[in-house]
Amino acid sequence: GDPVVNQGTVVGGVGYGLMGIKGVIDNVDPPLLSAGLHGKTVAADPKWLAQVIGTDSTLQDLSFPLIQSGLSELATNSDFTEQDVKFFLMNYAVRDKFVELCTNERTWFNTMKIDGGFEAVEYNGKPFVPDPQCKHNRIYGIVPETMKIYRSSDFDWMDRDGAVLQRTVGEDSYYATLFHYGDLGVSQRNGNIVYKGIRE
Questions:
Q1: CA 20 to centroid of chain Cα atoms
Q2: What's the number of CA atoms in the CB half-sphere (13 Å) around residue 96?
Q3: Which residues does 28 contact at the CB level (< 8 Å), separation at least 6?
Q4: DSSP readout, 86-131?
Q5: Residue 78 and residue 191 in contact, taking contact as beta carbons nearer than 8 Å
């Protein structure tokens, strides 16, 4: 149950790595961070939590009523409606379960072109976007306007001494350091949905 992080990215309960979707769209504090998400803990503001359907401990079959229940919870418990959800994010196995569900229910599923030329299957005009890095057994319903990358410095090469390349001591090589100071932030955490325990 322990999360895996790069060495040095969490020091004394403070995170120095970029926050991921799993830490933002949930109803618990991100693991290892003593101050909660962006300094706000679950205990301090329980109404701020994302809409959560299901649990990780119990697997459930994907169904149309299940998908719709998350959209209804969003409309009931936040300032957003299902029209604000722009896409669903999941891994390929869960996306394939959605296609199987459509086939079994004899429901035609459409494909749509999304930015970058990718094709995705859709539910009520919202694309099901697969990502191989997405956590297993989950679907995220995302309202993009609630999230933003906050930066104090964009990606750049460190060159404070006037040179990007530095000699590697004891080797015939050079190295360079790429840095970025920023984080994924959320203004309204309760404007997003996570469906947990989806059987793959």
A1: 6
A2: 8
A3: 42
A4: -EEEE-HHHHHHHHHHHHHTT----EEEEGGGEEEEEETTEEEEE-
A5: yes
**Helices and strands (H, E) in the chain, number of each type:** 3, 13
Q: What is the CA radius of gyration of the chain?
A: 20
- Contact (Cβ atoms closer than 8 angstroms) between residue 196 and residue 138: yes
Eight-state DSSP code of residue 146: G
C-alpha–C-alpha distance, residues 21 and 134, integer Å: 9
Query: Which residue ranges of the chain lie beneath pLDDT 50?
Result: none
Kindly report the pTM of this predicted structure: 0.82
Contact yes or no for 150/187 (Cβ under 8 A): no
Q: Per residue in 38-54, pLDDT tens?
A: 888 888 888 889 999 99
Residue owning tokens 């995220």: 140
DSSP summary character for residue 56: S
The H-or-E segment that residue 144 falls in is none
Give 42's DSSP letter: T
Beta-bridge partner residues of 185: 148
